[in-house]
Design goal:
- The protein has 292 residues and is an all-alpha fold.
- It has 14 helices and no strands.
- Helix 2 packs across helix 11 and helix 4 packs across helix 9.
């Protein structure tokens, strides 16, 4: 596979997350954080099991300690990050939460440079910075931007979630390179499904998750499919292109959410959002063109 395929997969992840996060927000408010996380990861693990079954013994063989550490450590970080982000969505406004989430790109980029020695050219850094600025502008739906924006409800959770999710994104890429993209997604799903399932079982809400799945299947099934498709595409992308660039492009799912709002909800954009949308789209296209 080539770099162009990696770019294409990053855009697939962007599209799937644009749809999936919208459905996740509805789900967390309807059935709760742990139920949402459990359903996504349980079915993700079940679908991936046939594809990784033959490779599971090698994962526990001698010499695989680093791989196991990366996969299980990353799983725990992603579990914490997902809960922080879910709670941020529950407590805060989207206009507060989404701009802060752009910092995931910084966290993943710093770890990619520090641990794996990935280096970006100056034009790539400029375009990623431009993309982040555009995403922050287009996702901010208020009228007046000030430092108080970062003191509103959900802001601290969003910041912690962004740093944790950026770290988890890096571990997904690192794990995909040490094993393979399907295996890293399978292990992450198994660990998170076990942790969230154990919490639900302890609190007497385990069986209710499946009843909720049957009751709200029209929104939960597409959520499960799109979120898992996004993670698999993202993991494959990071084996072909630098983690920072894969993260920057896939994080552009905010653009999809805005376009959906314009097309379906007939939302109107403020002037700064229009500027941000244009800047983000131009930067994403230029970054993709530069890599191919």
């Amino acid at each position: 596979m080539s770099i162009s395929v990696g770019i294409g997969l990053a855009f697939v992840a962007m599209l799937c997350w644009g749809i999936g996060d919208f459905l996740i927000q509805k789900s967390t408010r309807r059935i709760g954080d742990f139920e949402t996380l459990f359903l996504i990861t349980l079915f993700g693990a079940a679908v991936l099991l046939p594809f990784v079954y033959d490779d599971l013994p090698a994962l526990f063989a001698d010499g695989s300690r680093i791989t196991l550490f990366v996969l299980f450590g990353g799983s725990l970080i992603l579990f914490i990050a997902a809960l922080l982000n879910f709670e941020a969505l529950r407590e805060g406004k989207i206009s507060v939460v989404e701009p802060i989430w752009s910092l995931e790109i910084v966290a993943a980029s710093v770890l990619g440079f520090s641990v794996l020695g990935e280096r970006l050219s100056l034009p790539e850094i400029v375009l990623i910075t431009m993309l982040m600025a555009g995403l922050m502008l287009v996702s901010f739906r208020g009228k007046v931007f000030s430092h108080r924006h970062f003191l509103e409800r959900g802001a601290l959770l969003a910041l912690l979630g962004a740093l944790a999710m950026g770290s988890a994104n890096f571990f997904v890429g690192w794990g995909a390179r040490l094993s393979d993209p399907l295996m890293v997604n399978f292990v992450f799903n198994v660990v998170i499904a076990f942790l969230s399932g154990a919490y639900l079982l302890r609190n007497g809400r385990f069986a209710r998750s499946f009843r909720d799945l049957a009751r709200y299947r029209t929104s939960l099934v597409p959520m499960i499919i799109t979120d898992n498709a996004a993670w698999v595409s993202y993991a494959f992308a990071m084996t072909l292109i630098p983690i920072a660039i894969a993260t920057a492009l896939s994080e552009s799912y905010i653009i999809i959410a805005v376009i959906l709002g314009l097309a379906v909800g007939r939302e109107r954009l403020a002037a700064h959002q229009k500027v941000g949308l244009v800047a983000a789209v131009v930067a994403a296209i230029a970054l993709a063109a530069m890599m191919t």
